[in-house]
Amino acid sequence: MTQSKDQEPTGSAARRAALRMMDAVLRRGETLDNAAHAATQGLKSREDKALARALASEGLRWLGDLDALIDSATNQILPEDAKPRAVLRLMLAGWLRLGTPPHAVVATGLDLLQGGPRRLAHGVFSTLVRREVTLPEAPTLPERAAQRWGAAGERIAAGLAVPPPLDLTLRDAAQTQEWAQRLGGVSLMPGHMRLARGHAVETLDGYGEGAWWVQDLAASIPARLIGAPAGQGGGRALDLCAAPGGKTMQLAAMGWDVTALDLSPKRLKLVDDNLARTGLRAHCVQGDALVWEPEERFDAILIDAPCTATGTARRHPDVLHRIGPRQIEEMAGIQQRLIERAAQWLNPGGRLVYAVCSLERAEGAGQAAGVTGLIDEPVSAQELPEGIVPTSEGWVRTDPGMLQEAGGLDGFFMARWRK
Questions:
Q1: How far is it, in rounded angstroms, from Cα 411 to Cα 404?
Q2: What superfamily in CATH does domain 12-131 come from?
């Protein structure tokens, strides 16, 4: 890699963006998605944007282990917020996780530093290369996450070692075998298709005709627990906090007359766009579920509640570092209010499913245990992917360490009741 007076080494701009992303997450508590949007504005190519996101993601995923390597090669421990530490994290993530050759890591990484820190970082990185260091099989969880997740932490950490595969939900579950052949994927449930990661979604067979949409396997289960409407006339279903629309489309494909409610007009536009692509129909309503009132009651309500999203750590490793007791308590309060309000909107005999993509007890079992005025409707093993078993209460708990041989799935909690 060469560098002129007016041009930095190829790839340096992407690494600067990755550095800004990690700083936004670790220092300001921003989500990686928001940080990436701001940090990559100056990057012109899709490849540079993807590289920046990958470097930041792997740096956050393996942060504790990268820091342990850095500390093993310094005489004096670098402060947590020292720029040489931040740059070394990215350099090591590029080498050990993305397979970038050491000479290319040096050429692009050291350009992020000036003066003495550059020599320090070069020395530490070179020492670690000479030692031929490696990372453990699974990332070390941040201490507060490990404490919250307890005995399940080791299994969860194993599930975070690599980013997830690409899961699709089919518009017509009866065509599962046909799409397995057309896409070369594997199915873990009727209506589900799993492909290796790295595909450009828009180029896949079936995208243009709206035959499927991207949706993690675990995220597809809550709508399955609603089931199809009884009888030929269908029924009215409400999808609370509906964006980006995966569960809305599942319910519509089952035959429900769906109302999709979401607070964000921008995110509700995603629901509209996805419905248009798939040829499915729903009534999209912009509103705050904590103040909105429906004109009629519903036969089924799906609450995919706002949450800390710690169950999505495979693709959003920032949650490992951003989420703590304050955020969990805040989300739990919102979730409780949503359940209480939604229960009032059900017709007699109506079904309510509550779901969160969280690993936190306060957002899952803690919520379900406090529900009153509804009849428990336990989930059976036959309704779930093979290898996932309901709890003794009939609830569903998934985490990133489950189904590892098949590629894993996100962490979710789900429970179901009748009125």
A1: 13
A2: NusB-like (1.10.940.10)
pTM here is 0.93
pLDDT at 37: 93
Question: Judging by DSSP bridges, how do beta strands 346-356 and 412-418 pair with one another?
Answer: antiparallel
Residue linked to tokens 């894993």: 408
Instruction: Name the 3-class secondary structure at 336.
Output: helix
Whether 216-418 and 12-131 are alike in CATH topology: the answer is no
CA dihedral over 44, 46, 48, 53, signed as positive or negative:
positive
**What CA–CA distance (Å, rounded) separates 229 from 250?**
12
Nearest Cα to Cα of residue 180 among 192, 165, 172, 198: 192
Tokens of 349: 């005999």
Q: Give the architecture (CATH level 2) of 216-418.
A: 3-Layer(aba) Sandwich (3.40)
- For the chain, which residues make up each domain, given as ranges? 12-131, 216-418
Distance, in Å, from the CA atom of 280 to the CA atom of 311, rounded to the nearest integer, reads 28
70-85 b/e (C-beta count within 10 Å ≥ 16 → b) = beebeeeebeeeebbb
Residues of the chain with pLDDT under 70: 1-10, 232-233
- Strands (E) located in 359-404: 375-376, 396-398
| Collapsed DSSP state (helix, strand, coil) of residue 349 | strand
Using CA atoms in the order 62, 64, 70, 72, what is the torsion angle rounded to 10 degrees? -130
| Phi, psi dihedral angles at 223 (to 5 degrees) | -65, -35
Paired tokens of 368? 């379900």
Q: Is 355 helix (H, G, I), strand (E, B) or coil?
A: strand
Task: For 102-115, give one letter per residue: b (16+ CB within 10 A) or e.
Answer: beebbbbbbbbbee
Count other Cβ atoms within 10 Å, centred on residue 98: 12
Give helix 116-131 / helix 102-109 axis angle, nearest 10°. 170
The predicted pLDDT at position 4 comes to 41
d(CA 22, CA 311): 20
d(C-alpha 287, C-alpha 262), whole Å: 6
